[in-house]
Design goal:
Blueprint: H1 3-23, H2 61-64, E1 71-76, H3 81-85, H4 100-107, H5 111-116, H6 126-129, E2 135-142, E3 145-150, E4 152-153, E5 155-161, E6 176-188, E7 195-196, E8 202-203, E9 206-218, E10 223-224, E11 231-232, E12 237-246, E13 252-261, E14 270-279, E15 288-289
Parallel strand pairs: 4-15, 5-6
Antiparallel strand pairs: 1-2, 1-14, 2-3, 3-5, 6-9, 7-8, 9-12, 10-11, 12-13, 13-14
Length: 293
């Protein structure tokens, strides 16, 4: 493993560790008998959200959202620029923990064969889609389904909250994604200018609700981790954490931390992170079909 790859994996692993720590503080799953740490309940009364007169729980995933991921986003390529902006050479697997079988498959990649068979979208599946340069438009399809329309490859992902039944769904490029909010209450000091509130806005002291979106995707059609034919299998499990943040400048970003597990083609979990910056509208979107180049 190169020094660059080692640093990248350590940094990404640190982000995942933070996400795991966050998940241990999930407010949405907190016992009803007491408020989250740092949040005061009413004097002499029940905790917020309790059974004795507190506010009712959110009726659906849209209402429960601790952050707002909707809108138009552009990918900002800061990691693995060479492999994400250009198609690598045949057999190039640098930075990937591939098995011998995957290395052989990458060496035998034939883009003309993919095109002839009509599988140009093999590099546009969920494990690799948001690593490609492009723009994502995120909206609520309904109260319990987030939709991601990605202009590169003209792909649509559906992130279903509280969903079940993946086993009966036909494998596809985007697979079957089950989502859940991971919510956290943090204390924010007004000395440092506030922090992130419920929808990513400022908070000037006291507790603030924030969190991330966790998505687990299965039922994938076999595809490519990179456009040069490095494979992933239909048994791949993709776990993602969408971490939302608002910078002091007012810019809004999210980072998608992904963990790809595929024992058939990877010797261990592949951890990656992809950054997206919010845009005012979708006027810069350029929908383009899948391509083998």
């Amino acid at each position: 493993m190169t020094r660059h790859t080692s640093v990248r994996v350590v940094q990404a692993a640190a982000v995942v560790a933070a996400a795991v720590t966050l998940s241990s503080l999930v407010w949405a799953q907190a016992p009803a008998q007491g408020p989250p740490p740092g949040v005061q309940g009413p004097p002499g009364g029940p905790p917020p959200g309790g059974r004795a007169g507190g506010p009712p729980p959110p009726a659906n995933a849209r209402q429960a959202a601790p952050v707002d991921l909707t809108g138009n986003w552009v990918s900002v390529i800061t990691e693995d620029w060479r492999f994400r902006m250009m198609t690598g050479a045949k057999g190039e697997v640098s930075g990937l923990p591939v098995t011998a079988a995957a290395r052989a498959a990458a060496g035998a990649w034939d883009p003309a064969k993919d095109e002839a068979e009509g599988v140009q979208c093999k590099a546009y599946g969920a494990p690799s889609l948001m690593r490609l340069p492009g723009r994502a438009q995120i909206s609520w399809q309904d109260d319990n389904t987030l939709k991601i329309d990605y202009d590169t490859g003209q792909q649509t992902r559906l992130l279903r909250f509280g969903a079940a039944g993946a086993a009966v769904v036909e494998p596809s490029w985007q697979g079957y994604s089950v989502a859940e909010w991971e919510r956290e209450v943090v204390s924010v000091s007004p000395v440092f200018g506030g922090g992130i509130g419920r929808a990513g806005g400022p908070n000037f002291g006291g507790p603030a609700l924030t969190g991330s979106l966790k998505v687990v995707t299965t039922r994938l059609r076999p595809g490519y981790l990179r456009r040069n034919g490095v494979p992933y299998s239909g048994n791949t499990v993709l776990t993602e954490y969408f971490n939302h943040r608002v910078l002091p400048s007012g810019e809004t970003w999210f980072t998608a931390v992904t963990v790809i597990e595929d024992p058939e083609n990877l010797t261990g979990p592949l951890v990656l992170s992809s950054d997206f910056k919010k845009e005012p509208d979708g006027s810069k979107r350029m929908p383009m079909p899948c391509s083998v180049k």
